[in-house]
Structures are given as structure tokens and as C-alpha cells.
Design brief:
Number of strands: 11
Shape: globular
Largest sheet: 4 strands, antiparallel
Order of helices and strands: EHHHHEEEHEHEEEEEHEHHHH
């Protein structure tokens, strides 16, 4: 799964809000010099919440002055500031590349851009690909990768992947009587031990070992809680940055005003996946699991040989086109080598 950096770097939320506010004020002054005394006082604190409050006040005041707000240049700046505010509340970052998002390679390593989830045959020919923004998890893409591979003429009887693919939904998919397959994916104690509340909303980033909320923000720490007496289940509790929760556009129903923390807990259950746990210990599983290195080598090839480490243009559609061309070239080269 190659990580591809966006062509554009993200702006800091405060930086871009101040830039857009400044542009709006200048346009307002050009339209009416007397408006200087009517606008709210600029925020001087390096605090995002304060900057967001100021931005909303500025929008309200300018929008409330109909004679100024209807000036075409002012209306354009108003709309741009509104869009920037909404983007920050939704994703916490903004950039020229509106589809790119922050993803995590590990707990302390992140990137801004896209992911390309790929499937590959034993002959190292890529049989399917799904391009997503950087914050998307790996596990949910498995079903699409299997379906694409089969529609491209592949017989999929065994799937080899890392721990990200051992979620409960993928285990059920693998055991489906009609379209199932043998899944060679080591169990992760967090992903695969039982059901989780709102499992479809909170995704697990296996590289960072943390959960990501529906808005794309990753937990900042985790703690194991509960008694160790074996009579009740313990949980992993993940803590999110409360300052981001306070301003998030999706906070309704997720964050309660006034609370000092936002957490997400996952039950740790023993024996929930006994069949796979038993299979994991067999020589057959261990031999097949060793083949996973091939996909990592292919990822490195796409990035370092074909320049897939950086996006050539902006947007998810452009990234999909770049991915299609890159994968086509890599496959042609591999096929010629096999011939």
C-alpha cells in the first residue's frame, strides 16, 4: 500500500484563516472605507478556538451588511472564507489539494496525501487497486480488492495481508460459503478481539497502533483499563485531542460540551477468533505468511522506480489517473520480464 504525498503542503489552520480574513477585510475596505470601525477586533492569540470565534464574528458582521456583502468581490471573499472555515472544522487541515488528507505511517510519523491499496498475484502483477485519501484504513478495502481481482479474471482462493486485514468483517468475508477464501492475516489483539461500538465509524490505523475518528483525527494516546482478575473483560481506551473535538463540525452526538476528554474503548476478548488463532500456529499458515514481503517490494518499486511517492496533480481523480498509468507501466514491465 504506497503512501503518496500530495503535490501541495497543508496550511496550519490559524495561518489560512488569518490569510482569508485579511483578504476579506481588504476587499471590504476597498468597497467602503467607513466599514473599518464596524468590523470585530482581530484575534491576536495563537489559539485556534479564538481564531475560529473571530472568523465567525467577521462573517456575521460582513454578511449582515447587505450593501457591502452584495459587492461581487466581497461576496467572493465571503464564500472563500466560509469554505475554509468548513474545511478546517471537517478535517482540521486545508490545502490547495482539497481531497488530500493526513495519514499516519506510524505513531509519530505522518504524511499529507493519498493511499493506494493494491492486490497482487504470485507473479507480482497488480490485479486490483483502490485509491483513497491518506486517512483511510486498509482493512475496509479488502472486499473491493477481491472483487476487482476476480472481475479481472483472477481466481482468488488465498489472500495474504498484514494485521490490518484481520478485522471481524474481513474474517466473515473470508468464511462466506459462496465467495470466501483462505485469509492469511495475523490477528491483531485490538482489531480482531470481539465487536466494537460504532465499529463502522472508528477505523484502526495499524501503522500507528491508534484509532481514527470519523473526522479523520487520530487518537493521541491509549491506556489499558479494567481488572486483571479474568472475571471481566479489560479494554483499550483511546484518548483524542479534546481541542480538535471542541471545534469539529461532527461533534454533535460525538462530543459532549463541557467534557474534559473524548475516548473510544475497545473490549479485549480472548478466544473470539479461535479458528484463525489455531490456524495461525500451523506450518501452512507460517509458510504462506512469508510471501507477504512481495507486496512491500512492489510498493517500494512503485514509489522509487515509477515516482509514485508524490502526486503529479491535485485531487482524488487525478491521483486515480496517476495510479492507473503507474500500475499499467509496472505491470507491462513485469509481464515482459516473465515472457
Amino acid at each position: 500500500m504506497p503512501h503518496t504525498a500530495s503535490r501541495s503542503n497543508p496550511y496550519s489552520p490559524i495561518e489560512i484563516l488569518r490569510l482569508r480574513s485579511k483578504q476579506l477585510r481588504k476587499t471590504v475596505y476597498d468597497a467602503d472605507e467607513d466599514a473599518k470601525g464596524t468590523l470585530p477586533k482581530k484575534n491576536e492569540d495563537d489559539d485556534l478556538v479564538c481564531e475560529l470565534d473571530y472568523t465567525k464574528k467577521l462573517l456575521d458582521v460582513v454578511s449582515g451588511n447587505v450593501s457591502i456583502a452584495e459587492v461581487p468581490a466581497v461576496r467572493q471573499r465571503l464564500n472563500l472564507l466560509r469554505e475554509t472555515l468548513a474545511d478546517i472544522e471537517d478535517h482540521y487541515t486545508t490545502s490547495k489539494d482539497e481531497d488530500a488528507r493526513v495519514g499516519h505511517k506510524s505513531g509519530d510519523s505522518s504524511f499529507f496525501g493519498y493511499k493506494t491499496h493494491i492486490a497482487m498475484s504470485d507473479e507480482r502483477i497488480i490485479t486490483a487497486a483502490v485509491v483513497t485519501s491518506g486517512e483511510k484504513g486498509d482493512g475496509p478495502q479488502l472486499e473491493s480488492l477481491v472483487e476487482q481481482s476476480r472481475s479481472n479474471g483472477m481466481e482468488v482462493d488465498t489472500v495474504i495481508g498484514d494485521t490490518a486485514y484481520s478485522g471481524i468483517e474481513n474474517l466473515r468475508l473470508a468464511e462466506d460459503e459462496k465467495n470466501g477464501f483462505e485469509l492469511i492475516s495475523k490477528l491483531h489483539p485490538v482489531i480482531s478481539n470481539g465487536f466494537r461500538k460504532e465499529e463502522d465509524k472508528f477505523g484502526f490505523n495499524k501503522d500507528a497502533g491508534m484509532f481514527v475518528c470519523p473526522a479523520g483525527h487520530m487518537a493521541i494516546r491509549k491506556a489499558r483499563q479494567g481488572k486483571k482478575d479474568g472475571k471481566s473483560n479489560q479494554t483499550w481506551t483511546y484518548y483524542f485531542d479534546i481541542d480538535k473535538c471542541k471545534i469539529c463540525s461532527r461533534r454533535e452526538g460525538c462530543y459532549k460540551e463541557g467534557t474534559k476528554s473524548k475516548t473510544y474503548s475497545v473490549p479485549i476478548k480472548a478466544g473470539e477468533q479461535e479458528r484463525l488463532m489455531a490456524f495461525q500456529k500451523t506450518p501452512e499458515f507460517k509458510v504462506k505468511a512469508r510471501e507477504r514481503y512481495k507486496i512491500e517490494a512492489k510498493n517500494a518499486e512503485l514509489k522509487h522506480v515509477y515516482g509514485y511517492d508524490r502526486a503529479e496533480s491535485y485531487g482524488l481523480y487525478s491521483m486515480q489517473l496517476q495510479g492507473a498509468v503507474t500500475i499499467f507501466a509496472a505491470n507491462i514491465k513485469r509481464i515482459l520480464k516473465l515472457i
